[in-house]
User: Which sequence fits this backbone?
């Protein structure tokens, strides 16, 4: 039996994982052993090499297709190229690459006790285009130049020095050069089905290989085969006991990555809310983060919800937001008013006037309603206004304007009546319309946005003014009014939990029973 062969392969299912959610979305079941895998640059084709040892043994290169995207993507069988051995012989197929352009692939193949060959095949019909024998009896690794005009193959002979061969390749016909352009020798590495000890740099200038006993890197000139030493890439010297080299595509770019662009987040998944407009009573050019509870004019704020989730199917999401009392919704407009559906349910409403627009996905509102005390005349209702937004795409924005309600019919004063942290709206939640269940994030928690709030203030320190920026400290506890809203403490009470320690000095200002507090006498 050749080195690296197995007599009873273990089945190896192939999983498709959605990168955005880090969740497995599909599995391709097989009763064979996986010996190689490569993704093509069309982002849809996957090549795998499989072996079995039934009825003399067969090996194959199988083409899989990724259909759909995100959480709905599936792996489908798109054809295979079979290699068969005689009775009691092992058909070895390992190490596959997909060449740039996704027109041809290459694999290392051996039948029975014959030598390994480099086999070129067409991805269109999965037929052999060309094949050449290798100098070593055992195939170990294969790599391709990004320009697809050279192929580098590593083979060996049972613990004797390996061969590294460079072949020319015709990207139009799939033909391989009859003889290698150059051959180099390097210390042997044991073949491993999913370990590829060979890679080509992105500029096709160097080939990097791994050696065993002791483990080390070797760097060769890709055009001449000359050993140029690892000084060409100083970072390689920092790697201790290298085991394998792997890259997403057929090439490895070892150049310094470009600096991150903090302003470019177009590809980042987002679910956030932000205040984009509001009053500016102190004329500092900034939106107020505090309002006056004795105001004779309504406070009006505009906030925006940005929803961008590339891994979710489009048109199957409901974004639900609750605007609590004492705010009322003036209007809500999306960036696609013709394609999006927006429903606003005022306080106490369960259904829209149109029965076809019945509220189907409002668990927040239902929970809030259940906790409300009975109103006069025995009626129970909601004080929260519920917004339901059905975006037509998964990269959309919703802009809503809200304002404070009048305290009385005379409208001389506007809510709120009491100072404290005033919630503008709760974190919006994303709901799967097909199941009415909350969508989950990568950590398995309900997918929701942040809360928005401002500080409702009155003149507590007697200076006859309120700092509308939120940077004031009306209760003089060492925390600004807005900082207290962020921490959940009362900006109008210097000792929120009543433990005789000011909020700014209290390590846990929301729990008076936490050890380390000043205690009242007699306790």
Assistant:
């Amino acid at each position: 039996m050749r080195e690296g062969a197995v007599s009873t392969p273990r089945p190896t299912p192939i999983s498709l994982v959605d990168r955005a959610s880090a969740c497995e979305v599909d599995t391709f079941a097989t009763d064979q052993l996986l010996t190689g895998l490569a993704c093509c640059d069309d982002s849809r084709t996957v090549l795998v090499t499989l072996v079995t040892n039934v009825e003399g043994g067969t090996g194959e290169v199988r083409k899989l297709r990724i259909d759909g995207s995100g959480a709905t993507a599936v792996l489908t069988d798109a054809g295979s190229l079979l290699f068969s051995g005689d009775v009691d012989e092992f058909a070895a197929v390992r190490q596959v690459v997909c060449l740039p352009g996704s027109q041809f692939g290459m694999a290392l193949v051996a039948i029975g006790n014959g030598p390994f060959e480099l086999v070129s095949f067409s991805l269109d019909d999965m037929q052999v285009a060309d094949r050449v024998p290798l100098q070593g009896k055992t195939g170990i690794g294969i790599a391709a130049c990004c320009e697809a005009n050279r192929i580098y193959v590593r083979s060996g002979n049972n613990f004797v020095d390996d061969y590294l061969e460079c072949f020319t390749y015709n990207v139009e016909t799939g033909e391989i050069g009859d003889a290698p352009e150059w051959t180099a020798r390097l210390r042997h590495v044991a073949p491993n089905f999913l370990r590829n000890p060979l890679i080509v740099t992105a500029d096709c200038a160097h080939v990097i290989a791994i050696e065993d006993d002791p483990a080390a890197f070797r760097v060769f000139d890709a055009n001449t085969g000359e050993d140029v030493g690892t000084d060409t890439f100083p970072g390689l010297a920092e790697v201790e006991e290298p085991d394998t080299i792997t890259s997403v595509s057929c090439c490895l770019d070892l150049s310094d990555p470009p600096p991150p662009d903090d302003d470019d987040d177009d590809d980042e998944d987002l679910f956030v809310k932000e205040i984009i407009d509001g009053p500016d009573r102190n004329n500092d050019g900034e939106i107020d983060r505090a309002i006056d509870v004795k105001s004779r004019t309504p406070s009006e704020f505009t906030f925006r919800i940005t929803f961008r989730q590339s891994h979710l199917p489009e048109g199957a999401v409901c974004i639900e937001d609750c605007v609590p009392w004492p705010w009322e919704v003036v209007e809500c407009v999306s960036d696609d008013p013709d394609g999006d559906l927006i429903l606003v349910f005022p306080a106490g409403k369960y259904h829209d006037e149109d029965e076809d627009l019945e509220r189907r996905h409002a668990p927040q509102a239902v929970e809030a309603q259940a906790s409300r005390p009975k109103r006069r005349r025995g009626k129970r209702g909601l004080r929260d206004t519920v917004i339901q937004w059905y975006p037509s795409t998964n990269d959309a924005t919703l802009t809503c304007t809200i304002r404070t309600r009048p305290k009385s019919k005379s409208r001389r004063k506007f809510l709120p009546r009491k100072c404290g942290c005033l919630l503008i709206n709760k974190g919006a939640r994303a709901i799967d319309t097909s199941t009415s269940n909350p969508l989950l994030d990568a950590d398995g928690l309900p997918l929701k946005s942040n809360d928005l709030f401002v500080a409702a203030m009155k003149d507590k320190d007697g200076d006859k003014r309120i700092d509308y920026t939120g940077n004031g400290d009306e209760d003089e506890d060492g925390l600004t009014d807005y900082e207290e809203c962020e921490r959940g403490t009362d900006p109008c009470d210097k000792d929120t939990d009543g433990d005789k320690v000011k909020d700014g000095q209290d390590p846990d200002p929301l729990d008076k029973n936490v050890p380390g507090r000043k205690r009242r006498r007699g306790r």
User: Anything to note?
Assistant: The longest strand covers residues 74-84. DSSP finds two helices and 29 strands in the chain. The chain has two domains: 14-238, 270-371+380-458. The two ends are 82 Å apart (CA to CA).
